[in-house]
Amino acid sequence: FSYLYKNEIQSIDRQAFKGLASLEQLYLHFNQIETLEPESFTHLPKLERLFLHNNRIAHLIPGTFSHLESMKRLRLDSNALHCDCEILWLAELLKTYAESGNAQAAATCEYPRRIQGRSVATITPEELNCERPRITSEPQDVDVTSGNTVYFTCRAEGNPKPEIIWLRNNNELSMKEDSRLNLLDDGTLMIQNTQETDQGIYQCMAKNVAGEVKTQEVTLRYFESPARPSFVIHPQNTEVLVGESVTLECSATGHPQPRITWTKGDRTPLPSDPRITITPSGGLYIQNVKQEDSGEYTCFATNSIDNIHATAYIIVQALPQFTVTPQDKTVIEGQTVDFPCEAQGYPQPVIAWTKGGGQLSVDRRHLVLSSGTLRISRVALHDQGQYECQAVNIIGSQRIVVYLTVQPRVTPVFASVPSDMTVEVGTNVQIPCSAQGEPEPVITWNKDGVQVTESGKFHVSPEGFLTIRDVGTADEGRYECVARNTIGYSSVSMVLTVNVPNVSRNGDPFVQTSIVEAIATVDRAINSTRTHLFDSRPRSPNDLLALFRYPRDPYTVEQARAGEIFERTLQLIQDHVQDGLMVDLNGTSYHYNDLVSPQYLNLIANLSGCTAHRRVNNCSDMCFHQKYRTHDGTCNNLQHPMWGASLTAFERLLKSVYENGFNLPRGIEPKRLSNGYSLPMPRLVSTTLIGTETITPDDQYTHMLMQWGQFLDHDLDLTVAALSEARFSDGQHCSSVCTNDPPCFSIMIPPNDPRVRNGARCMFFVRSSPVCGSGMTSLLMNSVYPREQINQLTSYIDASNVYGSSDHEALEIRDLASQRGLLRQGIVQRSGKPLLPFATGPPTECMKDENESPIPCFLAGDQRSNEQLGLTSIHTLWFREHNRIATELLKLNPHWDGDTIYHETRKIVGAEMQHITFSHWLPKIFGEVGMKMLGEYKGYDPSVNSGITNEFATAAFRFGHTLINPFLYRLDENFEPIPQGHLPLHKAFFSPFRIVNEGGIDPLLRGLFGVAGKMRVPSQLLNTELTERLFSMARTVALDLAAMNIQRGRDHGIPPYHDFRVYCNLSSAQTFEDLKNEIKNPEIREKLSRLYGSPLNIDLFPALMVEDLVPGSRLGPTLMCLLSTQFRRIRDGDRLWYENPGVFTPAQLTQIKQTSLARVLCDNGDNITRVQHDVFKVAEFPH
């Protein structure tokens, strides 16, 4: 305690109570104290009572009672306190005491008189007219040299009068520490004898009890002479929340004064955005910051001396925001479901998933991907429920809730089923069928085991009802409705019977005149073509193609002629009865079954030659048929002797698709829409999607992979082309008229095609010849059938490319004179080994250029053996292989006659080809996945039809065109190019003289097994040697193989790609995005969309070619399905398959299974001495 009251004390020294730290009570009342020093009581931390009442105190300096944390009682009443703005600090202190309740205080105003007696605690700034400072005069930038004096003006007003404080580079200046600095009475800062250290950013602050205010920042720039820029303030990395404002300060000095500019990121100029400004001092100011403002910013200070820069980052911290939000899902039990969930923010948010507020199940089925997607595999019923995606960072979190509904799997159940029906010929019929299930089932229809597809003949409604237009007796049979989903399938069938009333038809009166006219016009066109082709050298690629495909067997010619006459007759009858047409909604079709009565159809068949050329099979010579094959493939299947035989209609996996349900190809009428779009020109598809100048070498397989595929194909199928190059109506050549009059089906050239510059309007193309009655097996042709095409070859792998597919062809190439079972041979080379014999007869396609060579074509079992030199070389190998084996067999069996040697050898050669194909070649093409689809051989099945399907021959097996290199490489014994060099493909067509004159077959064979093949790349399909220079000749329009493949598919009524996806159990594609699993390249899908408009329109061939390859194979998924189906049928339906027990003895089979193409090359090449064991695999040479 210290009692100092009533002592007439007038003042107190600030050190008076120093050392009295324990003093608790200090009584100074009833004295004459007028002023108190600011720090008089700072040494009394435990002071609880301070009595100063009844003194003469008029003013108190702020801070007088600071640090008195133990104060409980303060008395200042009965003093002469002058309550002005300077006492506001005391009013705030007293209010604090009152609010806390820990201390009592008393202080009253004496002046001014209007508030005399008022408690200081109740005084407000408004009552005292206090004003916060305001600047009345701002400082300005200054440039100064050494030793001068600088004045920064700063004037301010306020109540009470503001105190002026100066800052340099945001630090308060101390006038006491530097005598050169002076603060003048009016607030002006004077800097005497300026130095370099004085440069920087200055700012004046005016401050009083009512507040404070700052002037603008100004710069003092110091120069002794012109100076490079230097930063006064460097920008600093700054973190900011979205929506706030941020400034990156940047200031520099130099002489001349540097100019400040900013860039973002990799020196990109700042965007033009009103949110972004540069302050007068050079700082970068961004208002309402967004997430995209985050990044690196660079401040440049530039003057005439130099350019400097400094970098800082704006780090925008933001709450997570969802960029991809999951949606409620309903899935079928067992499926996989994805809930995509992605968010952005800073820091980058972490995605977490919960179910029903708890953790996800800990099992392999629930997986959160790196993208944030929740994937649930093999969804179970108990997975149903509410899921929550949370995006979390240090700023906060966001969440979104979704619901998963799981439906149990249900196999299809029929809601409506068809029943047997009897209908009138020529009518339209609808057969009901619909089904329910989970997933929703897809409805397909089969007729007699062949799937029905959308066409002018058939239509399947969305609910599954089948409509058959223009019903004829050909439509009779058993129809099966199949409802299929991923759980299983159900089927129901019915029998359709067609009643044919014995009444005359509109076309009956015109039958005789039409058949006479048809015979005359067809024969005239065929004879004109023969004269044109055989009386002179080929003059154009069209001639080459026609010669190349013209049948050698007269029986084939007559059968093709009969089919053309039959169909031409119907066309002429239609023309005669135009007035009585039954026109459909599109105005393009009529009812063929209502055109001619059955007895007249039989008359047409008889007069056209169809009936006369129907074969009668005799399979009674079981001694022969049990051991050997016939040349034409008949009697292989003894229950169905015509299955797989030559000169029969191609089989079909799906029903044909013709515009009118009978014979008109898709796209033949350009204005006719399919699914809302016109079909694109095949040439446009080729140039847009297929042709390529770029080739990617195959790092695994050689060019022999392609060559064996072509050689194999020529053992399986050859479509009989129209015998005429001229249209039947007037005999004009198809390439000159560019119309679609039978048999012409010209490939039109689009307006912007490069070939238009050469004046070409179309490319030559004629339709394949139709089968008589198109597939009729009945002796009575009492109905018309959709157009089918003829396979000129046997469907078995039986070396028909070596021996021919008819007795006529076989006799042409046999050496019957020697009676040693040999094949005819041609000229013998210096190696001592013979070439193939030359073909005899009129000039052939191989004499296309009289400037090159007069050497004719070689003769082999297949008429296409001269197509290109690589193929010719393989034909030569196998002709030699036959003669080599026959010679060895004669040595072992000198008692055998020539026929026995021939057939035994032929049987062995066929088995070798089967083994090489299935054991060495197909595994490379199919890969492990495809070989599993093909399955192991389980023995002969007589219920399997080995016939080649139209889809296989016309589209699927043409995939080999994508494996062809643009060059045929020719290598010598050291695997170096021969002197004549490698051969561009277009120079290798029909050029046997190059084998005779340029080194034989060995250089070509080495180029096949010693050089990498072309890789199948969806964006690099057919090289331009095939699309721009096929069969090219001087001053003519070359052909385009890709366009021809597409046109041939339409000619043959091949259904679109979509139907085969469904057939192969792939997903139904309603949009082009639905193709992304099989065609991943978005550019290819976009091209398909631009060309076809609808995925339901895409032609089969181009779609198969652009599918992504199944890993380990050279095929896409749909193509693999089609090829594995065909090769399984070829193998399982062949009674004389080499592995079928009894065909060969176990010892013979062991020897055959040691066969390889490498061995055949060594045995039959001219001088092949080095070859890899597997000629399909890439190897380094010398080997």
Automatic annotation (TrEMBL):
Cellular component aspect of the GO annotation: endoplasmic reticulum; extracellular matrix; extracellular space
Cofactor(s) required for function per UniProt: heme b
GO biological process, one term: system development
Ig-like domain span: 133-219, 229-315, 320-407, 408-497
Superkingdom per UniProt: Eukaryota
Keywords: Calcium, Disulfide bond, Endoplasmic reticulum, Glycoprotein, Heme, Immunoglobulin domain, Iron, Leucine-rich repeat, Metal-binding, Oxidoreductase, Repeat, Secreted, Signal
Pfam families: An_peroxidase (PF03098), I-set (PF07679), Ig_3 (PF13927), LRR_8 (PF13855)
Any one Gene Ontology molecular-function term assigned to this protein's record: heme binding
InterPro entries (UniProt xref): Cys-rich_flank_reg_C (IPR000483), Haem_peroxidase_animal (IPR019791), Haem_peroxidase_sf (IPR010255), Haem_peroxidase_sf_animal (IPR037120), Ig-like_dom (IPR007110), Ig-like_dom_sf (IPR036179), Ig-like_fold (IPR013783), Ig_I-set (IPR013098)
Main localization of the protein described in the UniProt heading: endoplasmic reticulum
Positions contributing to heme b binding: 961
Subcellular location: Endoplasmic reticulum; Secreted
Similarity comment: family membership: Belongs to the peroxidase family. XPO subfamily.
Alphabetized PANTHER family for the sequence: OXIDASE/PEROXIDASE, PEROXIDASIN HOMOLOG
Name under which the protein is recorded: PXDN protein
